[in-house]
Design a protein that fits this description.
The protein is of the alpha+beta class and 142 residues long. Helix content is 46%, strand content 13%. A 3-stranded antiparallel β-sheet has the order 1-3-2, with helices on both faces. InterPro entries: AS_sf.
Length: 142
């Protein structure tokens, strides 16, 4: 029955193996991962391509900020949607800034400085169908 499945699912959170796995992830992602890298190389942040950067931050529970890095060439073949497209013409790709716990302010500052220096987001305009017809200013505060 639904009730018994619900009770069973609720009981899975008290399994010691779950808590051991969470602790191992935290140790690997934070202590021996991001924190160890920042300390060993005397870094304020770690920069990675966006497509590979979210896992370490997610495992550690640490902040991550992503900014535009560039665009694939216009002649890039359109990959099949399985369920999402991995690549296509003018597809943007990003650069992620990872930091330690509570480093959000620094990461946003670094990302902002990068965006101001490069203006990458302005190098490829959105196609007409992707531009919203209604803007926030049209609906907020009415």
């Amino acid at each position: 029955s639904r009730l018994s499945r619900f009770i069973t699912s609720e009981n899975t959170t008290v399994d010691q193996a779950f808590f051991d796995a969470v602790a191992a992830d935290k140790d690997l992602g934070a202590t021996r991962g991001i924190d160890a890298t920042l300390k060993a190389f005397k870094l304020n942040a770690i920069l990675l391509p966006t497509d590979v950067s979210s896992t370490p931050a997610a495992i550690a529970g640490y902040p991550i900020v992503t900014v535009p890095l560039g665009f694939l060439p216009a002649d890039t073949p359109l990959a099949p949607a399985e369920p999402v497209r991995e690549s296509g013409p003018n597809q943007p790709f990003g650069l992620s800034f990872l930091g330690t716990a509570f480093s959000e302010f620094d990461l946003v500052s670094f990302a902002f400085a990068y965006e101001q220096a490069t203006h990458t987001r302005l190098k490829q305009l959105a196609f007409a169908e992707a531009i919203p017809k209604t803007q926030l200013a049209d609906v907020v505060g009415r």
